[in-house]
Amino acid sequence: MAAALLSFATTGKLSAQDGKTIYNKWCSGCHGETGAGDGVGAKTMLPHPRDFTKAVYKIRTTASGEIPTDDDLRRIVEVGMPGTAMPEWKSRLSAAEIGAVVQYLKTFSPNSFKGAAAKAIAIGKAPGGDGVADGKAVFQKLECYKCHGLAGRADGKSAPTLKDDYGNPIRPADLTENWKFRGGNSVSDIYTRLRTGLDGTPMPSFQDAVENKLITDEQLWRVAQYVHSLSPEKTPESREVVRAALAQKLPATPDDAAWATVERFWIPVVGQIIAKPRWFAPAVDGLWVQALHDGRSLALRVSWDDPSKSPDPIWDEWLGRMSKTLTDVDGPLATQQGPDRLVVQWAQNPSDESKRPYFLGGDTKSPVYAWRWSSEPKVEEGSEAGLGHFTALPNGSVTQSARYADGQWQVVFTRPLASSDTTKVPRFGEGRAIPIAFYAADGSSGEDEVRGAVSTWYAVYLDVPTPTRVFVAPIAMIALSAGLGMLLVTRAQKNGRANGATDSSPMEER
Ligand code: HEC
Ligand code: HEC
Q1: Residues 346 and 294 in one domain
Q2: pLDDT digits (tens, 9 = 90+) for 266-313
Q3: What is the CATH number of the domain that holds 13?
Q4: Is there an atom of ligand 1 within 6 Å of 193 CB?
Q5: What Cα–Cα distance (Å) separates residue 323 from each residue in 32, 275, 334, 379, 450?
Q6: Among 17, 176, 196, 369, which one has the highest count of C-beta atoms within 10 angstroms of its own C-beta?
Q7: What is the reported pTM?
């Protein structure tokens, strides 16, 4: 594509006509040819692609209700909107191409953009000193928790009732995962959003609170600093191997203080878009995994954010709105809330590195060994031959202990390392990387055994009592990090071709 536009790119000048060409090629699949946000597959995404004819934009440096500046539009096209289907474009389009497509976007709502250009509001500088405690007090005073929850995990009382200006359900931002903020996660990005609000969403502007002297400008900065402090200092990187350190005694419950000192590993999960029904709007986006063993048993604590303890009647309204909004999926959503779910799947034969089962719950030729947990709460041990095709084993030896608090599940699984039948139940050997993968679903969002979020294969490595060699991660592990989404997509395409499927969604084109 760059080649076709090279002649323009070298002169650095592109016209609105070029903007249209770029738009039709790269953007219309989601945003629609007329800019109405109705591209192929738009209705499978949450949030839906923006309708440009309305000229309502979330990420601006302009006051609430105003159009964005050209720079605002350019920046969002460059970096994309994390946590949504909106990709970044700066690795694919030149600055001139992005400039041209931005000019073209404005032609979808000529009346809104015809007057004088909008002006960015003046942003001062963050006050020095530690204001996190003050920020927390102001967070309470401004009642941010009503939507975002007391711990910031998007589980506030109002969360199940929230909808955007188009009537679609909208989740408040999870303030403990700031790498998914649409408009950036620096303190000044957050402060800017608090001044401008996110137009078209229930996220208000707090400009009035300052103007009416309910709080000072400095206090608004303190809230931004407090919000920033709720997430890890650095965006967690997913590593391929979860280390199970050796412990004297295994913590049996999720709230045992011993877990606080155990290293935690971030495992991203993405919507299951391969087996039908596919699911492009996953509620869970990652899991924190910790592991310990004492030479006899393995204990695994999995923690993930989920704003509802499903099923919960106060989320009925939300589920109704979900099923009305996500109409383009493969068949209707469940009308009743199921439980929350977590499936921990293991390679049945961990010693055979070359024969890792299919990551979506294995298949009939090569099933996976699985722990199927649901929020009743209970866990079953068995084998899975494809997503949702689960057969329980008699005399399972895995146990669970679960806790739900402040928008988060924490589940501890414990199982002896030994196995009496290694053809069905892998032995957890020390000094070895055992392949593991995850599936998570939120019952209140209509998710079930197939609609949910999946990871690819990772591994759990059990420390040896006296290390005799330096630990090296097995090279055979699938390289992950940024590649996860791509990997799923590539597989989806392969799968699609293999099945002779012709349907393609915009996500698969990425
Ligand atoms: C795979 C689907 C997809 C593609 C392709 C895509 N977008 Fe988006 N875009 C989205 C979604 C979804 C949103 C809404 C995200 C949200 O509301 O949080 C969005 C939002 C936007 C916004 C609104 C930003 C704001 O502050 O509200 C702009 C501008 C935008 N896209 C421009 C583009 C341009 C330009 C292209 C092509 C170069 C493009 N998009 C391609 C899915 C896509
Ligand atoms: C009425 C509900 C509501 C209230 C009250 C509310 N928010 Fe939000 N907030 C939302 C929603 C919904 C979103 C997500 C919008 C979206 O999907 O892009 C959001 C998004 C955010 C974001 C992410 C911005 C980004 O770039 O994506 C931050 C940070 C935030 N809110 C902080 C706050 C703080 C701090 C307060 C209190 C001063 C507050 N919110 C009050 C509903 C609310």
Answers
A1: yes
A2: 999 999 999 999 999 999 999 999 999 999 999 999 999 999 999 999
A3: 1.10.760.10
A4: no
A5: 22, 19, 8, 28, 16
A6: 196
A7: 0.90
